[in-house]
Amino acid sequence: MDLTKHFNKNLDQIEVSMIRQFDQSISDIPGILKLTLGEPDFPTPDHIKEAAKKAIDADKSHYTGMAGLLELRQAASAFVKEKYHLSYQAENEILVTIGATEALSATLIAILEAGDKVLLPAPAYPGYEPIVNLVGAEVVEIDTRGNDFVLTPQMLEKAILAEGSSLKAVILNYPANPTGVTYSRQEIKALADVLKKYDIFVISDEVYAELTYTDEPHVSIAEYLPDQTILISGLSKSHAMTGWRLGFIFAPAAFTAQLIKSHQYLVTAAATSVQYAAIEALTKGKDDALPMKAEYIKRRDYIIEQMEKIGFKIIRPNGAFYIFAKIPLAQGQDSFRFLQKFAKEKAVAFIPGVAFGQYGEGYLRISYAASMTTIKEAMKRLQEFMEQYAD
């Protein structure tokens, strides 16, 4: 008897994340410095932790409704209205999820069927495609390398027309992981002008919205396409709450009525004490990201200055906390091999660009969600490594 033959066949298309494979390959190196994870190095603000403690002490330990605490949904509604000019009714247009990851899973499971196609600007975060594949749908990547990782209306419309009736949705992520690219109001409106002509969902992952470094604040595509957009957000990046696992889905009431079905049977509801902490985060802590953002900008600018000196080409990121750098041609373009060698010789770990798909090969991703002390030492070792192998 071999029951392994009876698993969902769609699992055959899903591999263990290349990020995890690489991490495993270098984790035994003594004293290795890791600039790998998309996880803020800042602690969760104390006032948020206190709100969770108070909830626990008050025995707030029972289920909330499936959609989450109404008070939290009201806070989320007020937050996105103030920050991004979005109007969502707390009662029936917001779902509280276990992180943005569960929000994405619940959304993709709810809308996709076998044979559907989903457009994805690439290189892209590697967490989208496996969920799409699991339900028998297919990701179609749009190569954005030729335009400095920026999706244009022309690229988008060409891809939509090429896929025809099998196209169900487009996934946007901005500020983007891994490139740090984000979009101006003018650029978002131009993309929206294309999308509104077609009967497709727009799934917009804007979890890094509070970490936008341009003078212009983040602009959500939901402002222009409220009737098509399923907006994904969360507190992991904005409030340094990765381990708390708290996210949101914002969508029209008719969408939410369907999305709550997949959400319910995946998780029932988010943890109750965490929801009380989230209320604190979105009200008294609505600007908690500002001091973190100021520090991220300093780190970004330092890394860019140091890496450009030694031959790396970098498209300046205007959001998130990643540098996506082109490996100099003289070093070869096998990002996995290049960074394995660097890790073994200099005890520093970045993420190979190939972990973000075929269009990420030849690049590397650095997370600057690490202390400046760690970053400076990593840059010093990178310079030594590059000088060692210079022609």
TrEMBL record:
Enzyme class: transferase
CDD domains per UniProt: AAT_like
Its EC number(s): 2.6.1.-
A Pfam cross-reference name: Aminotran_1_2
Domain (Aminotransferase class I/classII large) ranges: 32-382
GO terms classed as biological process: amino acid metabolic process
Cofactor dependence: pyridoxal 5'-phosphate
Keywords from the named record: Aminotransferase, Pyridoxal phosphate, Transferase
GO MF term list: pyridoxal phosphate binding; transaminase activity
Superkingdom of the organism of origin: Bacteria
Xref: PANTHER family: AMINOTRANSFERASE (PTHR46383:SF4), ASPARTATE AMINOTRANSFERASE (PTHR46383)
Similarity annotation: Belongs to the class-I pyridoxal-phosphate-dependent aminotransferase family.
The protein, known as: Aminotransferase
Natural source organism: Streptococcus macacae NCTC 11558
